[in-house]
């Protein structure tokens, strides 16, 4: 192998994790080395590796290569920097906004994996990294659970979050991940692990956890029922899928937020700002969405402000002054195509809703606080990729319309192959919409999405 180990990250009985450097490609990676004398387990792990190559998501560490030498398996991942959630839980108390952000990101990552038939099975704070922006990366998807099932892994920090059916019966499905997510949510809310790591001998006799709101007064009561349903011992009593959990979490959060804002004693703009901040963090997880702020920095503004200066610019261009023009003491460049399109959209809004309507044109950066967009790959057959663009209006008080989302297709070097525009005509408060796209692409092509602009309405339609 063409890798030189630079750091030992973790060493267990049956696996080790190293940071390494490719000798010729000048690339840092993480190498997971799994040694198992059990041929059946090795075969299952190879099946997992084949599926992991299809797992492309901003919240999940990307598998770059897989190598088998004798009875040793090597999983080679992109190098991921960040702090383990387990370490952070020991040193800080997460705000409710931070908790909601982490859980939303976990839900989107798990939704993508479950659609590909992949279950993590051993999801725990040990295997969730947070970068400096507060975005997650899930590590070790699938194969740790296989080792647990085979009895070849002993890791107390994992067992504290593992579903009972995996411990007791060596089986796991997507509902096992929901259990683990509930256990992580409990720890985030209460700053207490769901099972005392010093008493893991009673793990199979799961204790009845006290409701999160009884452990910490800051926790809204609606979390009690959500955690209880996630962590039901019987998998049939849990949420049927992460989408159902996501819907209930968003609904209950916004109901609570409305109740708080209606209470004169707790009514404050800072609470609303805090909520939109958490949504912005969730949406900003994808690297491209973060970078786009560098390219789309124009400030959105209320449409009722007439943008007289911009209209003067259009007039100047129409008169043939396409180079530069003087405005007061400043020299302005001619209007761009993007600005002209924005003005056309302004005219459309004024024509439809009137100049006095309380509407706001949001640009890409501002839109992060109101809209969550995600891409889910449904299938790959040869060069045909079928994927779904999902848009969620996380604002239960205001509607969105004319939502423009850009979809980019990248090759394995990161170069843009093609780009298309997807438009959602309207999203009522708390509404969702989806569009299915089929595209002929190279085998290793990736899909990235970002919201470009939308109109925010003061009220629902």
From TrEMBL:
Keywords tagged on the record: ATP-binding, Kinase, Nucleotide-binding, Serine/threonine-protein kinase, Transferase
The keyword Transmembrane appears for this protein: no
GO molecular function: ATP binding; protein serine/threonine kinase activity
Keyword Hydrolase part of the UniProt annotation: no
Annotated Protein kinase domain residues: 3-250
CDD domains reported for this sequence: STKc_PknB_like
Gene3D superfamilies reported in the protein's UniProt record: Phosphorylase Kinase, domain 1 (3.30.200.20), Transferase(Phosphotransferase) domain 1 (1.10.510.10)
InterPro entries listed in its UniProt record: Kinase-like_dom_sf, Prot_kinase_dom
This protein's name: Serine/threonine protein kinase
Originating species: Thermonema lapsum
